[in-house]
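Human: I wish I could look at a protein chain and see how it folds. This is the protein in question:
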Amino acid sequence: MSIAVGALVGARELDKETLRLLKKLGFETLSISFWETLGDSDLDSLAAEVQTAGLEVAALSIWGNPLQKAETAEGWKRLIESASRFGDPFVTGFAGRVPGASVEDSLVSWKALFSELLELAYQNDCKGLLMENCRLGDTWKQGKWNIAINDDAFNLLFSTLDNERLGLEWEPCHQVEAFVDPVAQLSRWLDKVKHIHGKDARVDWETLKTFGLFAKRKAIHTTLPGLGDTDWHSLCALLEQGGYRGSIDLETTSSSFFEDIEGKVKALSYLKACRH
């Protein structure tokens, strides 16, 4: 079975019309995301609309720091409890971070929360919780969003809490930004990567060599698949050889998924062509 290719869309942008459009354009799966809080979202109504559209939901995601913001931690719990209404999706988000602390100094708080979330996942037959690998500017020593940011952190997290329902939601964009070979990293974590965001990045080496990484001019630019530095053909081949059963869901590089929808359709076609 080939890898499905879908769309990652904010819940606020989803309605009957946009869901019908995604299906018509050829998107095969859907990831639904929230920022920091679910607020007063009606998950039952959303699940019913998605089911009517005939799109498989690959992931329900909440982006925020669940170790700092109670609404984000509560959002994780609500999504876990509601996941079965959307089919059989993963619940995903940032691992969180004790604000200002190092990866190591955040582990106790992280383990306490995710042990609770995993127990809730078993109680509600949620197939898995995945940590996304975006840095949002965080480093090993300090930050305010996420500790699941690189190989060393992954090793520490999974040695601290080794659970069959805990894994990674991964995307090559963040590796290119960190000058890590995405395909090589994926090969190291293939057994833990259960869902992938379709986003890439491109390094402007001339700008980088002239002005450096921290100058006014950006040397690294976020892109859709097909426009960045990642070898998606090799990436998809590796996934298929490893028996990957998840999807690759395109993540927008703008504030709305439906902005430059033509570009998204091109990226969709590109990823489908990378399948073997």
In short: The mean pLDDT is 96.
